[in-house]
Amino acid sequence: MKEIGIKLGLFALGLLLAFSATAQTGPRKVAFSLAEAQQYAVEHNRTLASASLDVQKAQATKWKTIAGMLPQVSASGTYSNSLGYKMDLGPMQISMPPYATFNISTSVGLSGAQIVSLGIANISRRMADITLEKTEKQISDQVETLYFSALVTEETIRLLEKNLESMKKLLKITQNSVDVGVAEQTDADQLQVQVSTMESTIKTTQRSLEMVYNSLRLQLCLEEDVDIVLTQGIDDLLNMNTTSELLASPFDINDNYDYRLLKENTELVRKQIALTGWSNGPTVSVYHQYNARHNFSNEATMNMTPPNMLGAQVNIPLFTFGKNYAAIKEAKLTYKKQLNTLEDTELSLNVQYRQLLYNLRNAIEKYEIQKQNVDVAQRVFDNIAKKYEFGVASSLDVTNSGTNLISAQSTYVQSLLEIVNAQISLEQLLNK
From CA 336, how far away is CA 338, in angstroms rounded? Predict the structure, then answer.
């Protein structure tokens, strides 16, 4: 009985621990400010990790090119046994005893193509660095956009729920009036339709909010069961002073990532002209060879291999039937085309800068107007709702004012997003 009691006690303890672990297991929560979310994404995003690997790959290619220009050393050893065979030279014979050889060869070759290739490797490394910086900025901007989108969507839900509460209150008053015969059932039905429509809109917006959070989880590389808590609100982040400073910022095209990449790519195309020309240029190589031989016999033999040998070679292509000339001409035409693209891009970016300034100013003006419009629409709705309670206004007036309020709120929320998107677009162009 005592053993059974111990076993039952252990079993109960196991169940208690399992229940406790289950109770403690729940959705994980992580809280982020905007800056914290951006930093976390930069540290954990896999796209950025791949861009970082490209930088390392470009660096490895550079050192591979350098290594090809340095002396190359190789060593070898052999053992040979002729099994007693002697070389017959008529009146004399030469023994061929077993022997071992050891050889060290050192060689270095240099050509213009190798030097140009090193320059190309340096350009590739710089382009990889710029791409890494650009990817980091893009990820930070995507996180900022999603962060604001989540805040704006939550604000939309808050406004809709506030409207829904008011509409339910009016519906209740109307239904009570219908029950005592003071109001028509159609008045209550109209309000009921609007309440149902608003409830459906709230559910749709809530699903949209979940989609925004899922996109944010992807950017942060978080699992799907992690709840994200945003610690900053729209008022904390939407700073008009910062926006005004951004509008006053000059545009330096050399800070733009796309222009920097295109400029480096243009230099890369120019290097291809030199590489094409040197591909049929002279190649100079120098080598040294050390040989050591050990005979496993005291018999006289013959060794015709010198212990040291030094040599040099120059290889000069003489005639390629115009192939090299045509290749160089093709490379030069490609370079001219690339220069045209660079000039077009420079002009396009300057025009884009002016357009983005216009977009941001327009978004600010629209936001200020819609902010006032929401305030007016809210006061109109509240006024008509009070009149409706006292029987001065009709249910149609309430419905129309409620629809106008929702429309004004929707436009206001959209204007918030337009400011954020316009600001981020200008920051991307200015590399701010």
Answer: 5
Contact 109, 283 (CB under 8 A): yes
Angle between helices 257-278 and 323-389 (to 10 degrees): 170
pLDDT digits (tens, 9 = 90+) for 248-297: 888 889 989 999 999 999 988 888 888 877 777 778 888 888 888 888 77
Please check whether residue 325 lies inside any domain of the structure. Answer: yes
Rounded to whole angstroms, how far apart are CA atoms 277 and 328? 6
CA angle 276, 67, 64 (to 5 degrees): 70
Q: Is residue 89 included in any domain, yes or no?
A: no
* Cα torsion through 148, 209, 358, 33, rounded to 10: 10
Percent of the chain's residues with pLDDT above 90: 15
Number of domains in the chain: 1
Q: Which DSSP state fits 225?
A: T
The DSSP 8-state label assigned to residue 1 in this structure reads -
The per-residue pLDDT for range 168-191, each reduced to its tens digit, is 888 888 888 788 776 788 878 888
* Within-domain flag for 395: yes
Report the relative pairing of strands 86-88 and 93-95 from DSSP bridges.
antiparallel
Q: Per the domain annotation, does 24 fall within a domain?
A: no
The H or E element that residue 46 is part of is: helix 46-68
Q: Are 350 and 253 in contact (CB under 8 A)?
A: yes
CA–CA dist 355, 349 (Å, integer): 10
Which residue has 């790959």 as its token pair?
57
Coil, strand or helix: which one is 148? helix
